[in-house]
Specification:
Distance between the termini: 35 Å
Strand content: under 5%
Number of domains: 1
Largest sheet: none
Radius of gyration: 22 Å
Number of helices: 11
CATH topology: MetI-like fold
Structural class: mainly alpha
Oligomer: single chain
Number of strands: 0
Low-confidence stretches: none
CATH architecture: Orthogonal Bundle
CATH class: Mainly Alpha
């Protein structure tokens, strides 16, 4: 009975925290979302209460998070295939790789940014640098999520592929990747949500700009960093815009999460189950 009460109270507390965040942003920021805010870039006096919007931050966030997620996918998929096809699940090497990924997942993003500044000392902050660093941050998220899906694949499916004369590479691309596709879409979108919400590392390696980047070598604004700058101003109207910006960021992450669930459920129907 006590265990059920603890479980119930934990779930209720989580729901209340979630709803309080949504309601706070909705009440304080929802009414300040205007067409100007989402379709224009900041003017010179935007952070002093002047006209303008956050289109630069919206575009920058989408560009950076999308590029980082694609880059993380290029690194993560081969790691997952190596763990699933070339190593035994309980081998020391596989356990070590998963342990390193878990540690990397838990490292604060500000550490990635600080280390990157030291390693890339003298390299100009830009969209490209931000994509690389945020991509590295997303690798543990994408890899571990996809790895858990890969471990659920029936062993018999892989053995059947080998029995039919398929090589490991053929099994990887024609069997395993096909079965992992629903999980990959879900993991990709989760990593995208992680990347679009990061501020600490992005501020150090991507910089900030009041315009939309015209190339990979331009500095880029993101929604979390834009919120950081807006909330620091002494002008109430700009602080209200910060809540509106936070509400927009929350909506983007919510949509990404819903799409993740939708695509996973949709494509899972075509998987071969145990």
């Amino acid at each position: 009975m006590l265990f059920r009460i603890l479980l119930g109270s934990g779930i209720i507390l989580f729901i209340l925290i979630f709803l309080s965040i949504i309601m706070t942003l909705m009440v304080k920021g929802g009414s300040h979302i205007t067409l100007e805010l989402v379709t224009q870039i900041p003017s010179d006096t935007f952070y002093n209460g002047g006209p303008g919007g956050i289109l630069n931050a919206i575009a920058g966030s989408l560009l950076l998070a999308a590029g980082a997620s694609v880059l993380a996918s290029i690194w993560s998929v081969p790691i997952v295939l190596f763990l699933r096809l070339y190593l035994k699940t309980d081998s020391r090497t596989a356990s070590l790789i998963r342990f390193v990924l878990d540690v990397l997942w838990g490292i604060p993003t500000i550490v990635y940014g600080a280390v990157s500044v030291i390693i890339l000392f003298g390299v100009k902050a830009s969209l490209l640098t931000g994509i690389i660093i945020v991509g590295i941050i997303e690798i543990p998220v994408l890899t571990r999520t996809l790895d858990e899906v890969a471990r659920l694949l029936p062993v018999e499916l892989i053995e059947a592929s080998y029995a039919l004369g398929a090589t490991r590479s053929q099994t990887a691309f024609r069997v395993v990747l096909r079965e992992l596709f629903p999980g990959f879409i879900s993991a990709f979108l989760l990593a995208f949500g992680r990347g679009i919400g990061d501020a600490a590392a992005v501020l150090l390696v991507a910089g900030f700009s009041d315009s939309i980047p015209g190339s990979l070598f331009d500095q880029v604004a993101t929604l979390p960093v834009s919120i950081f700058f807006q909330i620091q101003t002494p002008f109430p109207v700009v602080q209200e815009r910060a809540y509106a910006t936070g509400f927009i960021l929350m909506l983007i992450i919510l949509v990404v999460s819903l799409l993740s669930r939708y695509f996973y459920n949709r494509f899972s129907r075509f998987q071969i189950n145990r």
